[in-house]
């Protein structure tokens, strides 16, 4: 996985509605951080609009955008989910689900018409989005002997890392979160400490 030091996402729940030749397209965006939240929000939309003709969506997860999912929900292949995804990518955002609900209006739109309609609905929805920049943090577990704890705490404080949890047994175990911009310098200092181990947990 490749990470920068920050990523963009949305902080609100924008929505929009457009009409194309009698068909209504209702677009809703959600900030989501995992597949469970993705599934839960899609289910909420389906329960809210059980009589809709289609519930199409695109979703991107994780700061490195390693998870991408689109669904045309019965529309011709790549006429719904992909146009929605294209609009999301224009804003370079992640951890977002955008669902477009369609109520069929009695007239077929054709392939170009569907691509345009789903893309426009997604675009209008994202015009109402509040895009924010979030910092990325690396999470580590630090292990040391109790006699060296003061050195660990000094380095943690110096690099403004946040202590998440502390456990003491034969070894002291400290879980921290540190701004990615400070990670390299922090690890270099830790490398020279005797009786010390560092274990990477995650980045988020």
Bulk shape? elongated
N-to-C span: 12 Å
The CATH H-level superfamily of the largest domain is Impact, N-terminal domain
DSSP helix fraction: 25-40%
What structural category characterises the helix and strand content?
Answer: alpha+beta
> How many separate structural domains?
2
The major beta sheet can be summarized as: 5 strands, antiparallel
**Strand order of the main beta sheet, please?**
2-3-6-4-5
SSE order, one letter for each helix or strand: EEEHEEHEHEEHEEHE
Low-confidence stretches: none
Q: Helix count, per DSSP?
A: 5
Radius of gyration: 23 Å
CATH level-3 fold name of the largest domain = Ribosomal Protein S5, domain 2
CATH class of the largest domain: Alpha Beta
Strand content: 35-45%
Mean pLDDT: 93
Strand tally, please? 11
| CATH architecture name of the largest domain | 2-Layer Sandwich
Summary tags:
204 residues; alpha+beta; Ribosomal Protein S5, domain 2; Alpha-Beta Plaits; 2 domains; 5-stranded antiparallel β-sheet; 4-stranded antiparallel β-sheet
Break the fold down into its secondary structure elements and pairings.
Blueprint lengths: L5 E5 L4 E6 L2 E9 L3 H14 L5 E8 L5 E5 L9 H10 L5 E8 L6 H18 L3 E5 L1 E8 L4 H10 L3 E7 L3 E8 H12 L4 E8 L1
Antiparallel strand pairs: 1-7, 2-3, 3-6, 4-5, 4-6, 8-10, 8-11, 9-10
């Amino acid at each position: 996985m490749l990470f920068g030091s920050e990523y963009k996402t949305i902080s609100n729940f924008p929505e929009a509605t457009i009409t194309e030749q009698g068909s209504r397209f209702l677009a809703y965006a959600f900030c989501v951080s995992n597949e469970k939240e993705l599934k839960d929000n899609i289910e909420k939309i389906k329960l809210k609009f059980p009589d809709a003709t289609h519930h199409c969506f695109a979703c991107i997860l994780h700061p490195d955008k390693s998870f991408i999912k689109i669904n045309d929900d019965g529309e011709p292949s790549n006429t719904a989910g992909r146009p929605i995804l294209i609009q999301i990518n224009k804003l370079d955002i992640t951890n977002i689900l955008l669902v477009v609900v369609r109520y069929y209006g009695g007239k077929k739109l054709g392939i170009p018409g569907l691509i345009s309609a789903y893309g426009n609905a997604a675009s209008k929805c994202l015009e109402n989005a509040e895009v924010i920049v979030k910092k990325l943090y690396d999470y580590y577990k630090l292990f040391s002997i109790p006699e060296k704890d003061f050195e660990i705490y000094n380095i943690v404080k110096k690099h403004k890392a946040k202590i998440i949890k502390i456990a003491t047994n034969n070894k002291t175990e400290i879980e921290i979160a540190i701004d990615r911009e400070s990670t390299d310098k922090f690890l270099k200092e830790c490398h020279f400490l005797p009786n010390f181990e560092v274990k990477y947990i995650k980045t988020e």
